[in-house]
């Protein structure tokens, strides 16, 4: 198995089928530089087909998750005109697309600033766990900018009505409001409780077969866009393949024998 790519803006740690990815620019509240975007995409590409990696945990170093895009990168792109801005912006959209389609379960741990691009990353997670005091928001319009790449993912996560209100007012809100909106699944009072909730969720994820999880995630995402008839035809084929496949055989045998399946040991 090839090693993970070397990174300057990320800290990587693998344990028990889980890859912890820590955004590591605490001096800028983990603002998303072009380099960080590129490194995240490289790491995800490196582990996408690794069945041994069953979950990805994305969090920030220090007290913040991610304060959005790096304004220094934007200032540097100014000399190269609008094409440079398009490239910079679209690269982050590609990251969100790739993160959303990862076959592994993606868990985001949200503390401190969860703004702009950080907000977008939360929207493509499978499980989002926030600290009560976290500060969420999309401040782009207050800067004369657009939430260009995150907007479709925000709408898909919390709906058009709330997305319009939040983007057009650049509103800030805490973890409890994020849970009410459906952006996050769990809200915890402090960092210790946040970690305990993460461990609980990871234990549940690791009870599930990795191939079945990957196929189920793809089915759920496809259900948003594809016509129902063809989608159900494809789902029936996927189900038949699962029943006849290694995980299906092991899972049903384990059930009959009243023991945990191999992937849960």
UniProtKB/TrEMBL annotation:
GO MF annotations, alphabetized: catalytic activity
Entry-linked CDD domains: crotonase-like
GO biological process per UniProt: isoprenoid catabolic process
Matching Gene3D superfamilies: 2-enoyl-CoA Hydratase, Chain A, domain 1, Lyase 2-enoyl-coa Hydratase, Chain A, domain 2
Matches recorded under Pfam families: ECH_1
Family: Belongs to the enoyl-CoA hydratase/isomerase family.
Protein name: Isohexenylglutaconyl-CoA hydratase
């Amino acid at each position: 198995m090839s090693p993970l790519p070397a990174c300057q803006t990320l800290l990587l740690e693998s344990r028990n089928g889980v890859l912890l990815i820590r955004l590591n620019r605490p001096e800028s509240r983990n603002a998303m530089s072009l380099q960080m975007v590129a490194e995240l995409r490289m790491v995800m590409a490196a582990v996408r087909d690794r069945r041994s990696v069953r979950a990805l945990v994305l969090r920030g170093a220090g007290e913040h998750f991610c304060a959005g895009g790096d304004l220094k990168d934007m200032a540097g792109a100014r000399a190269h005109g609008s094409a440079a801005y398009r490239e910079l912006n679209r690269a982050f959209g590609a990251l969100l697309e790739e993160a959303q389609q990862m076959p592994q379960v993606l868990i985001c741990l949200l503390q401190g600033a969860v703004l702009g691009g950080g907000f977008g990353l939360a929207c493509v997670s499978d499980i989002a766990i926030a600290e009560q005091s976290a500060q969420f928001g999309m401040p782009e319009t207050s800067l004369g900018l657009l939430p260009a790449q995150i907007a479709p993912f925000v709408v898909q996560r919390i709906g058009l009505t709330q997305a319009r209100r939040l983007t057009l007012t650049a509103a800030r809100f805490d973890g409890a409001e994020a849970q009410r909106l459906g952006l996050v699944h769990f809200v915890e009072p402090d960092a210790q409780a946040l970690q305990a909730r993460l461990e609980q969720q990871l234990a549940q994820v690791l009870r599930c077969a990795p191939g079945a999880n990957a196929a189920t995630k793809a089915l759920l995402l496809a259900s948003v866009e594809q016509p129902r008839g063809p989608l159900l035809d494809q789902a029936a084929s996927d189900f038949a393949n699962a029943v006849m496949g290694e995980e299906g055989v092991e899972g049903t045998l384990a059930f009959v024998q009243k023991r945990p399946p191999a992937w849960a040991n």
